[in-house]
């Protein structure tokens, strides 16, 4: 592991990004709002949106080559825009053996470069991604179905925030030990024992990042950058339906690595057809020491059980619950929930699925509301939010894939229970081929076994359950049990009663899920802000890790000590 | 998880131990020498040794009851002093179900107490253990075979140091996030979004600490205290031959917990006969979320493969190597190595096993020494060190168990190869029944397949190999390969050549083992100092974790966030 040939760009990058890194390090301690990546599309120049569109259009129908990466010559394609446009991008395929060999060979110089150089290179990669946020927004929109505004924010600056947050955590963790320390142990009247000790961070090996269909960048960047910043080589394996955003990411990472004098094969792309098994093949390779995965519980559990040689970080399925006890802002609550359920057609891992409503009613500033009234008012709020097709399309985005559409269809057919609100087909003014559905709101009774079976399984997509429960106490217990048994990424509660609030907090601490209380304004239970909010906890079955904490980065490297007498 | 009933002792303990905690937190950053627990036996009072002996004697032949812990009424015994004295201590047995139920029930109050209270309680436990270091020394001596001086230091203050180090890491990790933070996000001309966010540490569940035969406290305390300090309940499962030191530990922990108003069943003891399978039964219980294990590779691998529900920290077997290239202090090198090989009869996981000596000879301040000369001189140094039985016994201690004795016998019979130094039976002046053997030094040739088979397997105990290698370069490569394939807890090197030193460092960084260079005085490759040296790296097959770093503590708890508008 000889020191890398010094490249003048590395020193320049360290200098260029020092302030951003310092501010990120301060932000993860203070947890106040901060970002270096503006979330307003207009911040990216007057022609930013048009330039991004043009760059995206130029990719359509092309072969997305990755210079210098091994390939067997085959091409893979298969992405399908939920907006109905033809993408036609194809990607070079590579064999697992060749990819692993390239990743392993690329690592020594990067491992020797040290935490500061690696952080700076990662920030440069993120900076270049940020500058192309409009292009990424198009790529995210047409692979995930997110509406443009959301694809821009969640797929662009917010994803970059999560990447930067991971770099900051990784950097902080790597510099907790001094590079060199003097140790002097008194020996009574004899001379003290004295040593010089050097501590060097060493990477674990090759990391595998397995991307998801809905948030390829937002859910992909934490693991990708945490592994890269700690000296590992990273193999990016996108979901077959959401390759482009990560292919662009890999290309930019390789470009920066090359310029900075490192081997671009530190970051490689593994693409396969839908239904392929390369992820499973790669996951059990002895060289693969870290796996970051977002997706189904089935494959997540398989990875945890089978990739024993690797540190496995998973985010899987869960059932998110909101308890409605009481509120001093009934309209605000309804509006907030309507938006939370509608945003990206309920296709966020953080979208509430079950709204628990006591049969005894919900106390509000407009008087006590019965279960039926709350359900009707919520249905009305959703209808109001999504009444206009253009506005509905901007909130809902499009249905990401046929599996989700099937659940919307099943809900419409009454398969999950009586409908309080039927899904509606929305026409996109811009994309006639888009598949857009409003959420279904299903009525359920916590005390009916069939209903429980329906609402206690994850029903990913635009289907929510308004669950009648005996009392607030029963609702809190059902929340606790749901989180423990099914897992959850989020929990919400509405109450003006201190005792109920305490019970909700206690249940969430006990079951291990983060709680949003009384959201009635512009913050939604499904959204978390990097540098401030944790995404997931790692304490319930929905995920075994959180974005981002010490545990997410600390095992991605080890420290080797060299000691000698001083 | 309601707040625990405030107990006045908790506030007092926080106050009492604050300075020690602060100094420990500073020490793990500076890595300079520090300890609050004096390692000189005389620091513990004029009658300390006699009092410890009396306390130990009072335990002999007794039933070691643990008040308030579940038991099925059966008693377990089976410890055998390597010094030949009759111990006759028996311990109450308990069923796994009952133990787990008690541990689970005990946790809520402890989980709610918070990091500061937990750290203070842990420091009080360590403080009381420290005050009884002479008693622990007897218990460690007569279960592990360590000589009294070593049993006192390594089993007492040094083990306590490692426990305190783990508490400090655990505390630091738990307070990285603020308890509460304000988050204010500008919204252009509109009012900013504003939230208050609370971050609460929650434990993972029940931790299982599986102790080893040779260092029950030193290897046991890091995991025990790391898990306890992060809010978990801890089940201590000692090695059947080394129960007493951990039984004493559990009793003291329970005493402090009770006084501080916590449920003593937060720390329970699981004892079984040798050959029992309770560790395996407990390890796969769903409630067990952390396992700390020191012992054989076989069971360590089994745990890693089967205890999927738990975070598993293992320290297993390894083959430690020292490369002898050149030295400016030949006598110092020989003396240092002779002591390193002899200390506790080579029964440390950190004892060098293979000394790689170039056939081209070792350059020294006394001229170039051939392989044969080095081997003969080293044999002479060992003989010199251990020539006197009383002194030999004080260095060697006793052979810990029949398995180790068997290897000494095998070495004596030439089973591992030609002997440069035959093991010698040493009589203990104090303990006629003690089993004491000097190390065997076996000659081996790196280029002979039979020899390689012998010296590349772990040969735990008083057997070392003087391995002839073609050149220093070949020695460095053999070191690298040995670490990668067999694992190692330590590596050593002697060289005055800068190029060789660089190559040694590069090989150790690459293979993931810490390196001690040119030790010729009072520091030995087998010894690491808490707060300064890492024990293990977690980067090679000998161990998947290190004492102590962020990775050792960060996954023992999770953080739950509660947010609301401020």
From TrEMBL, chains A, B:
<dbReference type="InterPro" id="IPR016162">
    <property type="entry name" value="Ald_DH_N"/>
</dbReference>
<dbReference type="Pfam" id="PF00171">
    <property type="entry name" value="Aldedh"/>
</dbReference>
<dbReference type="InterPro" id="IPR011975">
    <property type="entry name" value="PaaN_2"/>
</dbReference>
<protein>
    <submittedName>
        <fullName>Phenylacetic acid degradation protein paaN</fullName>
    </submittedName>
</protein>
<dbReference type="InterPro" id="IPR015590">
    <property type="entry name" value="Aldehyde_DH_dom"/>
</dbReference>
<dbReference type="InterPro" id="IPR016161">
    <property type="entry name" value="Ald_DH/histidinol_DH"/>
</dbReference>
<dbReference type="InterPro" id="IPR050485">
    <property type="entry name" value="Proline_metab_enzyme"/>
</dbReference>
<keyword id="KW-0520">NAD</keyword>
<dbReference type="InterPro" id="IPR016163">
    <property type="entry name" value="Ald_DH_C"/>
</dbReference>
<feature type="domain" description="Aldehyde dehydrogenase">
    <location>
        <begin position="94"/>
        <end position="478"/>
    </location>
</feature>
<keyword id="KW-0560">Oxidoreductase</keyword>
């Amino acid at each position: 592991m000889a020191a890398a040939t010094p490249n003048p760009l590395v020193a320049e990058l360290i200098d260029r990004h020092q302030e951003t890194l310092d501010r990120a390090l301060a932000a993860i301690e203070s947890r106040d709002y901060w970002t270096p990546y503006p979330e307003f599309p207009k911040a990216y120049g007057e022609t930013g949106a048009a330039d991004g569109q043009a760059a995206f259009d130029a990719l359509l129908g092309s072969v997305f080559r990755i210079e210098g990466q091994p390939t067997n010559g085959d091409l893979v394609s298969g992405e399908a825009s939920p907006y109905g446009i033809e993408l036609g991008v194809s990607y070079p395929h590579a064999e697992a053996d060749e990819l692993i060999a390239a990743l392993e060979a690329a690592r020594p110089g990067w491992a020797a470069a040290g935490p500061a150089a690696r952080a700076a290179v990662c920030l440069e990669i993120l900076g270049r991604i940020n500058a192309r946020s409009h292009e990424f927004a198009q790529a995210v929109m047409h692979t995930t179905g997110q509406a443009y505004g959301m694809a821009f924010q969640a797929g662009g600056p917010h994803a970059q925030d999560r990447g930067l947050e991971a770099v900051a955590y990784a950097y902080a963790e790597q510099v907790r030990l001094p590079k060199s320390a003097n140790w002097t142990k008194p020996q009574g009247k004899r001379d003290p024992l004295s040593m010089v000790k050097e501590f060097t961070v060493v990477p674990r090996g090759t990391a595998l990042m397995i991307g998801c269909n809905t948030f390829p960048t937002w859910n992909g960047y934490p693991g990708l950058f945490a592994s890269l910043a700690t000296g590992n080589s990273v193999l990016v394996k996108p979901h077959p339906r959401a390759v482009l955003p990560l292919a662009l990411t890999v290309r930019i990472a390789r470009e920066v690595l090359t310029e900075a004098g490192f081997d671009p094969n530190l970051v490689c792309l593994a693409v396969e057809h839908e239904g392929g098994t390369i992820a499973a093949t790669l996951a059990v390779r002895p060289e693969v020491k870290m796996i970051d995965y977002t997706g189904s519980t089935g494959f997540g559990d398989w990875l945890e059980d089978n990739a024993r040689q690797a540190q496995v970080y998973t985010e899987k399925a869960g059932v998110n619950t909101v308890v409605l006890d009481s509120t001093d802002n009934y309209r605000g609550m309804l509006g907030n929930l309507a938006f939370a359920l509608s945003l990206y057609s309920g296709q966020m891992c953080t979208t509430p699925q079950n709204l628990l409503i006591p049969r005894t009613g919900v106390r509000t500033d407009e008087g006590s509301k019965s279960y039926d009234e709350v359900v009707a008012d919520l249905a009305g709020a959703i209808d109001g939010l999504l009444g206009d097709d253009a506005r509905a399309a901007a909130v809902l985005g499009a249905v990401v894939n046929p599996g989700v559409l099937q659940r919307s269809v099943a809900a419409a057919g009454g398969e999950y229970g009586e409908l309080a609100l039927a899904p509606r087909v929305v026409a996109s003014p811009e994309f006639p081929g888009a598949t857009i559905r409003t959420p279904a709101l299903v009525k359920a009774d916590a005390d009916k076994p069939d209903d429980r079976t329906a609402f206690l399984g994850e029903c990913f997509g635009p289907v929510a359950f308004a669950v009648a429960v005996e009392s607030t106490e029963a609702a809190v217990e059902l929340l606790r049990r749901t989180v423990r048994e099914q897992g959850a990424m989020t929990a919400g509660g509405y109450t003006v009663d201190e005792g109920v609030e305490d019970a909700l907090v206690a249940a969430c601490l006990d079951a291990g899920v983060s709680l949003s209380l009384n959201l009635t304004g512009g913050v939604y239970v499904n959204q978390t802000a990097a540098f401030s909010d944790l995404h997931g906890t790692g304490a319930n079955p929905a995920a075994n890790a959180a974005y981002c904490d010490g545990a997410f980065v600390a095992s991605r490297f080890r420290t080797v000590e060299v000691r000698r007498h001083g």
